[in-house]
Each structure stands twice: as C-alpha cells, then as structure tokens.
Design brief:
311 residues; Membrane-bound Lytic Murein Transglycosylase D, Chain A; Glucose Permease (Domain IIA); two-stranded antiparallel sheet; 20 strands; 11% helix; globular
Length: 311
C-alpha cells in the first residue's frame, strides 16, 4: 500500500487519480488548454505528479545465513525459517545429507535462491545461467558496477511461475515447485521406505528398503520428466538397469530406472512433462514398471506426493 500525495496548484482540482500521460506533449495543445492523456495542460494549470510513500518496510534484501546445529534436518530448517527446502538446496549447491554441524547455509529472504559470485562471473553470465533478465538481479541487489567474487546475490522468483531453464523457458510449466507423475494416471504399486520384499537391498539399517516409488505401466509406455532440469546421467547402472538422471532446477536429482529406451542425452535441458524414455524391465526388476527415485543432498528421499498419479 502507498499513500498518494498530490499538489493542487492554481485552482486545479482532481476528481480521480490522473493516469500517466503517454507520448510527447504538444506545446500547442497546452496553450489551448487541451488534455494530454488525463492531465489538463491549460496555462493556469500545473501538472500533478503523484508521489508514492511506502507505508510498509521493503523486504530484507540480504541473504539469510544459518549455521547448522546438531539434530538439524532440511525439513526442520525449512519449517523453522519458513523457507521451502527446495530453495535451501537450490541456494547451496553440493549440499550433502546428513547435514554437517557448523556449516553455514545461505538462504533467500524472499522466494528465490542465492548465488555466490565466482571469479570471471558477470551480470550477463549469471543471468544467462538461470535464463533470467540481468535487470532482475540488478534491481533486487542494487548492483553498482562489476560483480565481486565471493559476494552473494539474491535472485527472486515468482513462486507461482517457478524457475527458468538456462534457455529462458519455464522449467516447470505444469506445477512449479512440485513433482508431477511421470506417467499420468498410472498407479503407484510400491512406496518409499522399509519393505519385506526380499529383492530390495539393505539400506539405512533396514534389511530391505525401497529407495523410491514404483509406478506400474506396460512395456514401452512413455515416461515424462517429473520436473525440469538438466540431464546428468544416462545408461545402465547396477540394479537400476537403464536409467536417466535429471538434476532439476532446485538441485534435486531424479532417477528414472528400469527403462527400455532413453530419449535424452547428457547435458540436455528438459522441461517438466518432456519425454525422457520408455518403460522397461531392465536391472533388478520382475516386470515392466518405472522406479522413480529422488535424491536430496545425495540421499534417497520420498518423492511423494506425485501430482497426477492414481491413488
């Protein structure tokens, strides 16, 4: 909210807020007492220029620095500080789980992420890396002159729109900030967590543990990207069989396993909903299905909820 102050001079009165005049103002029109837009330009009138005075404090523009304490988790930090955990991973590339006590996390003060300036970075190169207009960076951070290596920049985003890929297109046009079902309408037949299924390997102290979710589908069914990002691995990998790994825009790794065919290449940018391959039964599999695994900080995590999967 802002207060509008208007100086009314020389007998000029305002019955409603004057819209901004557009285009050049003709001196002859002013002499004749005509209108320029909605502003009277008569000889005895004075142009009224609205002055906006903020009545609420502007958001803090500096990154939030948080030192990890014993017992901290990403979910706990996110809840305490009101920062989505995806924005925590996005702002801290290379973050590993479990969190290391004493490590300092940088967090955005508004929806968005934090970037550390590296040697050789420029406004243009940083903006290009995230598909942004440099003006976005300049405006929020009040940048003056060249960037200083080691300094931090806050990159605000509209949470209703989400991040861009380096190509400039929206990373997640279907549902920003959420994973969508890679096979829309398909049913989840096995969830994340401990299991009695003997084929599952031991993990996290459990004899058998399922590190992702299994989605049932017939052989050759197209698989779509649950979120947009860059392809970071393809091909055979132990019990995953043929798999595709995508590091999404928030720094999370999605693994699509047991595929029969791959449709993407390492380094390729994909949008949420783009085809990445076909369902198969390669690797440690007893029938056609998709194993979707989400890794946060290098650790398997529950990818649920998946928007669009059948109950």
């Amino acid at each position: 909210m802002a207060l509008l102050l208007a100086a009314v001079l020389s007998g000029y009165s305002v019955s409603s807020y004057p819209k901004q005049a557009t285009g050049p103002i003709d001196a002859r029109a002013a002499d004749a007492g005509e209108m320029a837009g909605n502003v009277s330009m008569g000889r005895d009138a004075t142009i009224i220029k609205p002055i906006y005075i903020p009545t609420a404090a502007l958001p803090n523009r500096a990154p939030i620095l948080y030192t990890i304490k014993g017992g901290d988790t990403l979910v706990g930090i996110a809840k305490t500080l009101g920062v989505p955990f995806r924005e925590i991973t996005w702002s801290n590339p290379g973050l590993r789980v479990p969190l290391k006590v004493g490590k300092v996390l940088r967090l955005p003060p508004v929806p968005g992420f934090v970037v550390e300036v590296k040697k050789g970075d420029s406004l243009a190169s940083v903006a290009a890396a995230y598909g942004l207009d440099p003006v976005t960076i300049v405006d929020f951070n009040r940048v003056r002159g060249s960037l200083t290596p080691g300094s931090m920049l806050v990159i605000p985003i509209d949470p209703e729109v989400g991040p861009n890929l380096p190509s400039g297109v929206l990373a997640d046009p279907i549902k920003p900030g959420q994973l969508v079902c890679p096979i829309v309408g398909a049913a989840i037949i096995q969830k994340f967590g401990p299991t009695s299924f003997a084929l599952e390997p031991a993990y996290d102290g459990y004899l058998h543990f399922h590190t992702g979710v299994d989605i049932i589908a017939t052989y050759g069914t197209p698989i779509d990207a649950a979120a947009g990002g860059i392809v970071t691995a393809v091909g055979p990998a132990s019990y995953f069989g043929i798999r595709v790994e995508i590091t999404d825009s928030y720094g999370l790794v999605e693994i699509y396993a047991h595929m029969s065919e791959v449709s993407v290449a390492v380094g390729q940018l994909v949008q949420q909903g783009d085809k990445v391959g076909l369902v198969g039964s390669t690797g440690l599999s007893i029938g056609s299905h998709l194993h979707l695994q989400l890794e946060v900080g290098g650790v398997p995590s529950d990818p649920m909820p998946l928007l669009g999967c059948a109950a």
